[in-house]
Design brief:
The structure holds 2 protein chains of 2 kinds. Chain A is mainly α. Chain A is 33% helix and 5% strand. Chain A has a two-stranded antiparallel ribbon. The relative contact order of chain B is 0.11. The chains are: A mainly alpha, B alpha+beta.
Chain lengths: 364, 461
């Protein structure tokens, strides 16, 4: 590879004042040039000006197929689901597409903010779907599928029509219809540097006052009683020695105010030396399997997430190891609700271990 | 609460879960008179009765922490030599990697119930209420994952530089670790730390209000060194994209001014050892003073460019909604902030008398200059002691002597950084940013100490 001789480089800097490439040769033998193939494999980002966007296209119709197979089980059929992630679609209007500002963002009574209400740049959707979706199998969509799913989402939001085919040729026109495209500002003091031309003036100017600074303070907000134990027993979340203890939040405040300083006892499971029984060891292995195969993304041990909790399945199918192992591999729909479970790529042996554990009661 | 106070002014605590209510009363009555033998018997009976329960932790010695004047010759903890004073302890390397005492098991990073639906796109909070000094033990460092965490084989990890550079480069971990390294203490705070309290009080303790905050000594190579090795165009390349190598492949636009100042590190070390897998092993970006989401974990690539990137976490999330409906984009700096960690929400003070009010202060713009503490809800303030070290963009520990008179008290702390900026009151912040900003809540925190000693998270007007 051609390199400037150092002197020539220095002269160039003096003459033009604009030469910017400063290549250090201080650390010989460290690092090597990347090959074009390596850069292509990793340089997948797409900027708002669409630098990095690969050529290609995908239809809304195709997007719907991909969506139902790979996306709907987390995001809902219409991208509206709030069960696993915040809703993607909803809250924007045809008027927003005209103005480029989402009117609902000015309402304090509007419940939540969907992705399409917030995002100003269509490149962000394309880039993120391409790099990180589907959640459990990121970077497995083809370029056509990414175009198609992006187009499908935009269609759900009314940005593009049903028969639309999104492509690298027309994506800049789609950008001009993004509902919140004019909804961002960089006029603030929270970016270090001058690149955005923001301000250096902080939002607030509190002063150091030492005496009689505010009127008699009143408590304006506190945690309601019913939430007292919502984060677990706080006595078990503080050290057992020290100048204070954790409050025993399993009891109403005051009812045993005298004894509210319950000693914080480390729970036995956490404190006991690792002398697990055989049964415990099995459970640990199952937990590792559940985590490795990302089962717990959709199924809680003792609660429903997007699919039923393992405890619910255990109750319904006690002892049915083969049925459960089959279901784990094949997926299914309709038993527990409308959201389908996709087929899982999991080894027979692992599926059996999990099925055995569920069939035996799915205990932690 | 009065009747619990014994002559030394400390509370004797009973494990009422394991005693009947009558027994509890008796224990307290007797305890008041310092009849410790009775208490010991009662506890012994209780722990036998609850067999498997708490037996692992020797209950009586651990719980009976009152320190009354002895009436029967002396404290049995002194008079009767314990096993550890009369027996042989364990040998070296019983644990090849030592763990905290089993009595410290209450210190855990924890999830806030209901905050997220999955554990892989979630957050766990560091137990600030029980930590000392400024360093967060690596195992208690807060976690934020967007698509789960991995334990990546460092021999296969690669780091690439491309974009507006003369020669795109690839480095192995061996090569990065060969370069001159620096070690620096810095705090890392999630931009959404304290987010749940923007509108009103929503969580009980400092772990959940402020626990997306940690501080470590990070070791690594200044990113600028690596960019120079690749011959980066630092004149026209005004923006740098950092990208992770995991499933989420997190991307963020990194401020060039912090790179050219040498502050941004490509780090592999954390508190003397390698990064923990949950914190990005084997390589993460350290962007001092900037919110945690920019500290990209499992760092695989940086790209030099002439425009910002509007990545998902700077175009859909980590944008701050303002009252007029506009979102602020590319908000990076964690402004000056502080919090009292003791006494704090969910704790119970044992008695009137002396306490050490202690807490943490930090600023994304430099060093902490001073911290003041109020015990009357912000009316009057006293200057706290800053403990060393006081480092730029690192946590700073502060302490203040306080004698609690047993009356309700509202405790606050107010930090000022070296730029002169003073941590704002909630009202000042909301006047500008409203209550739906989610990110960058650095308002002064209030803890109400009630007469019964229990401390609550409150907001004052």
């Amino acid at each position: 590879m051609f390199k400037f001789p150092k002197i020539a480089l220095a002269i160039a800097i003096c003459l033009t004042g604009a030469t910017a490439f400063a290549q250090s040769t201080k650390y010989p033998g460290v690092g090597r040039d990347a090959t074009a193939k390596e850069v292509a494999a990793w340089d997948i980002d797409v900027r708002p000006d669409f630098k990095g966007l690969p050529a290609g296209s995908g239809s809304v119709a195709k997007g719907q197929d991909v969506w139902e197979a790979k996306c709907a089980h987390c995001h809902g059929i219409f991208g509206e689901s709030n069960e696993v992630f915040s809703p993607l679609i909803g809250g924007t209007t045809a008027e927003d597409i005209k103005t480029g500002r989402v009117a609902n963002l000015t309402r304090t009574d509007f419940p939540g903010r969907t992705t399409i209400m917030k995002v100003a740049t269509v490149s962000t959707l394309w880039d993120y779907i391409n790099r990180a979706m589907p959640w459990t199998n990121p970077k497995t969509l083809t370029t056509e599928e990414v175009y198609a799913v992006t187009g499908f989402l935009l269609n759900l939001a009314g940005v593009v029509p049903d028969n639309f085919v999104l492509s690298d040729k027309n994506i800049a026109d789609v950008q001009k219809r993004m509902p919140n495209r004019n909804g961002m500002t960089t006029a603030h003091a929270m970016w270090p540097g001058k690149e955005f031309g923001g301000t250096y003036k902080p939002d607030t100017r509190n002063v150091i006052c030492m005496k009689d600074c505010v009127a008699e303070p009143k408590v304006a907000s506190f945690l309601p009683d019913f939430a007292r134990n919502a984060h677990g027993n706080l006595s078990e979340q503080n050290r057992m020695v020290g100048q204070q203890k954790g409050a025993d939040t399993t009891k109403p405040e005051g009812s045993s105010g005298k004894t509210s300083a319950t000693p914080a006892t480390p729970s036995t499971s956490a404190a006991a030396p690792a002398k697990a029984t055989d049964g415990k060891a099995d459970t640990k292995a199952v937990m590792a399997l559940l985590s490795k195969n990302t089962c717990t993304a959709c199924h809680g041990i003792d609660k429903k997430i997007v699919g039923p909790g393992f405890n619910e399945i255990a109750k319904k199918y006690p002892g049915k190891v083969d049925y459960l192992a089959g279901k784990i591999k094949s997926g299914g729909a309709g038993v527990w609700g409308p959201i389908p479970m996709p087929a899982q790529t999991i080894g027979e042996a692992d599926a059996k271990i999990i099925a055995n554990w569920i069939a035996a009661g799915a205990t932690k | 609460m009065k009747e619990q106070f014994n002559s030394s002014g400390r509370v004797i605590k009973a494990p009422e879960n394991f005693l009947t209510p009558t027994d509890v009363k008796t224990v307290f009555a007797e305890g008041k008179q310092g009849r410790r033998d009775f208490i010991r018997r009662a506890f012994a009976a209780a722990s036998t009765a609850t067999a498997a329960g708490v037996a692992a932790v020797s209950a009586p010695t651990a719980w009976a922490q009152g320190n009354p004047l002895p009436t029967e010759g002396g404290d049995p903890n002194i008079l009767k030599l314990p096993e550890h004073a009369t027996g042989l302890g364990q040998g070296v390397a019983t644990e090849g990697y030592g763990k905290p005492s089993k009595y410290e098991a209450n210190l855990q990073r924890r999830q806030s119930p209901g905050l997220t639906q999955t554990t892989q796109a979630s957050v766990s909070f560091a137990p600030l209420q029980s930590l000392f000094g400024i360093v967060t033990p690596s195992g208690l460092h807060f976690e934020r994952h967007h698509q789960g965490w991995w334990d990546i084989d460092p021999s296969k990890h690669r780091f690439m530089i491309n974009g507006m550079v003369k020669n795109p480069k690839v480095f192995t971990m061996d090569e990065i670790m060969r370069l001159p390294s620096v070690s620096r203490f810095h705090f890392i705070e999630c931009g959404a730390n304290t987010a749940v309290d923007w509108g009103n009080v929503a969580v009980p303790t400092v772990q959940y209000t402020h626990g997306m905050l940690s501080c470590s000594e990070f070791t690594g190579v200044p990113l600028i060194t690596l960019l120079e090795l690749a011959g980066a165009d630092l004149k026209n390349g005004k923006f740098v994209l950092a990208e992770g190598g995991d499933g989420s492949s997190m991307t963020r636009t990194i401020p060039m001014s912090l790179i050219t100042s040498g502050e941004v590190l490509v780090a592999y070390g954390q508190n003397g050892e390698m990064l923990r897998p949950e914190n990005g092993y084997p390589l993460r970006l350290v962007v001092p003073g900037v919110q945690g989401v920019s500290w990209v974990k499992y760092l695989r690539r940086v790209e030099v460019g002439d425009q910002p990137y509007a990545a998902k976490d700077e175009a859909i999330h980590y944008i701050d909604l303002q009252p007029g409906g506009l979102h602020r984009q590319y908000t990076n700096i964690q402004e000056c902030k502080s919090v009292v960690t003791t006494p704090s929400g969910g704790q119970v003070l044992l008695d009137k008398g002396f306490y050490n009010i202690t807490g943490l202060a930090w600023s994304g713009k430099g060093k902490i200059k001073r911290v003041d503490v109020s015990t009357d809800g912000g009316r009057n303030w006293r200057q706290a002691r800053l403990e060393t070290p006081v480092l730029s963009k690192a946590l700073t520990r502060f302490n203040l002597d306080w004698v609690w008179d047993g009356k309700p008290a509202i405790i606050q702390s107010r930090a000022q950084d070296e730029t002169g900026y003073v941590q704002p009151m909630y009202k000042q912040l909301r006047d500008v940013r409203g209550t739906r900003s989610i990110y960058h809540n650095n308002a002064i925190q209030s803890w109400l100490v009630q007469e019964n000693g229990e401390v609550k998270n409150v907001q004052v007007s």
